[in-house]
Amino acid sequence: MDIWPLILLNGLTLGAVYFVASSGLTLIFGLMRVITLAHGTSFLFGGYLGYVAASATDNWIIGLVTGLVAAGLLGLFTHQVLIRRFQDDDMRVALITLGVAVIGTDLMLAVFGGTATQVPFPQDLQVAVQIPGIGDYPLIRLIILAIAVVLGIAIYLVIARTRFGSIVRAGVDDAPMTSATGVNVRVVFAVIFAVGSALAGLAGVISGTLFPLLPGQDGSYLLFSLVVVIVGGMGSIPGAAIGSALVGVVSQFALVVAPTYAFVLTFALMVIVLAVRPQGIMGRPA
Amino acid sequence: MSTQTPSSSTGSRWKSWITAQNIVVVVVLLLALVFPLVVDRPRFWLPNIGVRTLWMGTIAMSLVFLNRYVGLLSLAQMTFAGICSYGVGYFSVTMGWPIIPSIILSLGVGSLAGYVTALIAVRTKAIYFMMITLALSQVFYSWASQAIEVTNARRGIAPIPRPDLGFVNLNDITTFYYFALFLAVLSYAIFRYTAKSQFGLAIQGIKDSPERMSALGYNVNRYRTAALTLAAFVASIGGVILVFDRNQVDPSFVSLDATLNILVVAVVGGIGSLGGVFIGGFVFAMLQNFAQDFTDRYMTLTGLVFIGVLLFFPAGLVGLGPIIRRLFSKRAKTSASTGSSETPIAARRAGKNNKKGQHK
């Protein structure tokens, strides 16, 4: 049996997790032109709280929702209390959210400890399905891939088709002008920041279902999200989809080809994209 | 902030050197010189506070130089220092070469790393540049923790004893402290000199208006690359102090935590001030050593201090002087206060405008 289709599918499901996380980052960047370095913190925070809720209620869906809401609230708090006043100063926002990340890492280590935890999911889903050309494949990975695809299409449609989406797009192009037309841009900013963080939290629960949650993942997922957003182009949802699929697949192939340097090869992808197309694959020239 | 007048007549040269900034520099330098004589337990204070302040400060200073004079926030400075540390370990211990050529070669390797980073990142600006340098630093970290034949993976290269350089024996901790102090002062002098040179004025012009400088015939990217390489060289000097302070080198030198620590030092000291980083480094080294006495969560404390400084004192601890002065003069003029957090921002904006005006 050929292993390449299996690796490809593994890469795509991993990319699904990256996509959910990085779509939040790219949304925040696209509208607000700021980068939140607390994105990995939202990811791990959502993952841990999702784990607590899912274990307590024995319900995976409640775990997902808890992770989503908890990270969203954390994002809203961060935005309202710490960075709202400095929104024009992207460097300062990046540094303040970095401070949040430092505190978050330390406190989560204190509360949840250094051991690996995994989000429980229903027995019915812990089965394998037969896929032609690959063989048995865990159903849960396919479900997560489907969640990511549906979510991606939903975000895209909301932004492309709805009134709120048109406000967001207008805000991306020219925030002061949008504000002048009577839109309360500050509310839109707060909503987008909360939604972006919530997506990271959701990604945390999803990731915690597939892989163990560990301290330090906040840093690594922040980096992966950054790489995805840089590769895909900042502020573009399709770009984030392409970027995450690329990063996921490349990292899985690299694990097979050169296990020791898998991480380096993943970043090499970013360097190549930057050298050829500094604004990212789907990014607009700045 | 100091006033920087590019041209000064030779007659008033000495007078122009007597500024508030230079007086503070001399005072701090004198304090640093007598530091080994006044502390009660030199065996604890010199390595844990003194030398640590000096290497953290030197590396953070290269970050501040790039931020202030080039307008680029590089998160790879700790990595350049770490690369140099690895160089010293690899050449002198693994290869068994003599120490002085090893150090010189390592400084070259660290600078080369800065040059290569510049080639990749120099076309990007501001926030993009920051993210790319962060990502590149993590590439090196992951490589260093896995490349067993060069870096000995997670175990690192040890021991790297402090050498007897012939003219100076670094084995003695007091001598090593003064050696580190000399390197730190040298780095400071390099940056101060560069900032006033023709080259320094050009990069500051590029920072303020790349388009205009480009139109004047300056190759913007080449200047940025040169500045980045210089900053990587100074970071490498910090790496030399670092490797002899720890007597080993391992991947934790270039981890995300180490990178963030340098950033914290720069921000707490004052991201706009070359010398302030040493104050930031001192505060940070004190926190690292003594916070454990009253709390287990010293990273949380560090994060809170970091955010507090960013929210209320964006110019860092060295910015406190002007703020206090301004507060008093403002009280004298009007009774109305605009709120403590607004003052420094407004001040910084005003400062920015002044600078722009000067360059015209």
Automatic annotation (TrEMBL), chain A:
Protein name stated in the entry? Unannotated protein
Concerning its family, UniProt says: Belongs to the binding-protein-dependent transport system permease family. LivHM subfamily.
Q: What is the lineage of its organism?
A: unclassified sequences, metagenomes, ecological metagenomes
Provide the alphabetized UniProt keywords: Amino-acid transport, Cell membrane, Membrane, Transmembrane, Transmembrane helix, Transport
Which source organism? freshwater metagenome
Q: How does it sit in the membrane?
A: Multi-pass membrane protein
One of the record's GO molecular function terms: transmembrane transporter activity
Q: Which residues cross the membrane?
A: 6-29, 36-54, 60-83, 95-119, 139-159, 187-214, 220-241, 253-276
Q: Name one GO cellular component term.
A: plasma membrane
Instruction: List, in alphabetical order, the GO biological process terms annotated in this UniProt record.
Output: amino acid transport
Keyword Transmembrane recorded: yes
Places the protein is found: Cell membrane
UniProtKB/TrEMBL annotation, chain B:
Q: Chief location of this protein? A: membrane
Q: Which UniProt keywords apply?
A: Cell membrane, Membrane, Transmembrane, Transmembrane helix
* Transmembrane portions of the chain: 20-39, 45-66, 73-93, 99-120, 127-144, 176-195, 223-244, 264-287, 299-324
Q: Which organism is it from?
A: freshwater metagenome
Check the record and name the CDD domains matching this protein. TM_PBP1_LivM_like (cd06581)
- The answer to whether the entry has keyword ATP-binding is no
Question: What is this protein's record name?
Answer: Unannotated protein
* Record-level Gene Ontology MF annotations: branched-chain amino acid transmembrane transporter activity
Entry's localization field: Cell membrane
Q: Name one Pfam family in it.
A: BPD_transp_2
